[in-house]
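Homework help board

Subject: predicted structure for assignment chain

Our instructor gave us this sequence and asked us to write out the predicted structure in token form, then describe one feature. I got the tokens but I'm not sure how to describe them. Can anyone check?
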Amino acid sequence: MNEEYNSKLKRRDMQQTQWIVTEPSDPAMQMIRLQQLQWSALKQLYRQQMPYSKPTLKDKIAIISSDNQVSAEMHHSGDTNASTDVNRPRANNIIAAIRIKPVGQWQLITGLVVSSEHRGQGLAHKLLEFITPELQANDCYVFALPHLSHFYQQHGFVKVQLAVNDIQQLYLKHHLAQKPLVLMRRQTL
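My token output:
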């Protein structure tokens, strides 16, 4: 009896928990299901760490998962034609994220978040480095918290007083006396 119990424990320890995909034979359905799970995990990360920031389907989102910290994944939440990749981060392990919000022909970096237990590991730098190729196409802005303006300067952003109208209107909407923000624009080469 004890030998049978030990055998069951060994089998359980060798098994890995994973997501159940409703249509395993259809890669497109697997991708859609994975994206749904990632979207849920992403929303949970924002609710826990940054409840005032909410991802939308129009955002381009880069994430870092705890089981794959060295690389991030660029993912457009509305894109269901992306290829399936077995090395993709599992949805329940998202520990950091950043969003690029389209505003007219410009871009706004928003919602840079790292889970509290993973801060200080350089994950925010990894995310910004990862999205840099995406930022080179258009003018890009960020509304930085004052204590993070130096961080964004390290990634090519400079403080500006004025922005294009659409960005300026958003900035004025979010910049409050009790919650000041620094308007920054990425320098283009």
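Reply (TA_rk): Your tokens look well-formed. For the description, you could write something like this. Helices lie at 2-14, 27-49, 123-135, 149-153, 165-174. That's the kind of observation they're looking for.
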